[in-house]
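ok trying again, last paste got cut off:
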Amino acid sequence: MDQQKLFYNICSDLWNFSKTLNKSSSEMTDEDWSNAIQLMDKTAEKYRSLGEKEHDLAYSSMMGVLNYIENKGKTENESNRD
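nice, full thing came through this time. structure:
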């Protein structure tokens, strides 16, 4: 797969993945987090056949979204305490 198509596919999958995360960190339940991680693993796995670097790129992109949601929630909670 050429690089441009790889990036397009990862962006498309990232968009689909992020649409399922329509809650703030404080609203997400343990089940929501678990479902998100399972979807992330399943989505990234399809890139494994292309190579380890491609899999890692897809996985880390989705992990970045989860980290953003989690960290944004922590920042909002700290702001609310002040």
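cool. The mean pLDDT is 88. The radius of gyration is 14 Å.
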